[in-house]
Every structure is written in C-alpha cells, then in structure tokens.
TrEMBL record:
The lineage of its organism: Eukaryota, Metazoa, Chordata, Craniata, Vertebrata. InterPro entries: Leu-rich_rpt, Leu-rich_rpt_4, LRR-bact_E3_ubiq_ligases, LRR_dom_sf, LRRNT. Residues 1-20 form the signal peptide. PANTHER family: OLIGODENDROCYTE MYELIN GLYCOPROTEIN B, PTHR47114. It holds the Pfam family LRR_4. One of its GO terms (biological process) is neuron projection regeneration. Keywords: Leucine-rich repeat, Repeat, Signal. The keyword Repeat applies. Residues 21-55 form the LRRNT domain. Transmembrane segments: none annotated. This is LRRNT domain-containing protein.
Length: 149
C-alpha cells in the first residue's frame, strides 16, 4: 500500500505534466500551450488539445467548419486558420483571442466592407456580454489584429 500512496502523491504533485498530451498531428512546445498543427491535411480540429493553449496554428489544412469547437480554449491568444477551406470565421472565438491570421480564400472574402460588417456583428451580437475597457475616448477590444494577406 505505501508504494501506491507514493505513486498517487507523485501524480498529484506533477499534475498537468503527466496529463499534458499533444495531439499526434501537432507539434507542441511551451508546456503544450503552443500547438502547431499546420500542413497535416486535417479536416477537423484535432482531439486532445490542452484547454489552456495560447497559440494554435491550423494553417494549410482542409478545415471547412470550426463552429462550436473553439470556445472552450479560454486562454487562446493567437489563432492561424490561413489556407483552409473555411467559408466563414468561427462564431465562437474565445474571449482572450487577440490575433487571428487568415490568409487565403476566407481572407479574400472578408476584406473591406464584409470584414467591417463581420466585426460589427461579432463584437455587438456574439460578444454582447463582453466588457469593453474605456481608455479616454478609445475602446479597447480583445481582438486587436486580423491578418488577411
């Protein structure tokens, strides 16, 4: 019984290090908080990504729809969905997201007026509960950059 207690104690102390698993189609670094799943021919989000991931590169895959699959990544700051088969941006982008990179077909569709309309709806309707911080007369929003080319 003491050996079992020692093993249990070790597992409790090491916590996420034992449980942190990188999906087979990705390469992970920084304690699995950075995942590069680019160029793997993925048609769906890989299983097993850490919930506390900060950077996710899904570029150069065959993703068509990510709806409903990104919201639980509450710490995600950078998302690269360039060169996929997406027809629209996911509607459930995490609140911590600052940087969305989308080169390729979706980026071309979202330029100019369409991009403006998307962000108006995104920030007003989808993030209606989001609290905006006011600094003087400027409104600081969570999503600070969107790359389309």
């Amino acid at each position: 019984m003491p050996a079992f207690s020692c093993l249990l104690y070790f597992l409790l102390l090491s916590g996420s290090r034992v449980l942190a698993i990188c999906p087979r189609a990705c390469s992970c670094s920084h304690g699995h908080r950075v995942a590069d799943c680019s160029g793997q021919g993925l048609s769906q989000l890989p299983e097993g990504l850490q919930h506390n991931i900060r950077f996710l590169n899904l570029s150069h895959n065959r993703l068509q729809d990510l709806g409903g699959r990104l919201s639980h990544f509450g710490h995600l700051r950078t998302l690269d969905i360039s060169h996929n088969r997406l027809l629209r941006l996911p509607s459930d982008l995490p609140r911590a997201l600052w940087d969305v990179r989308s080169k390729g077909p979706i980026g071309k569709q979202l330029r100019g007026w369409h991009l403006f309309i998307y962000f108006v709806f995104y920030f007003i309707l989808i993030r209606k509960t989001e609290q905006f911080a006011r600094v003087g007369t400027a409104i600081v929003t969570p999503l600070s950059e969107f790359y389309t080319s």
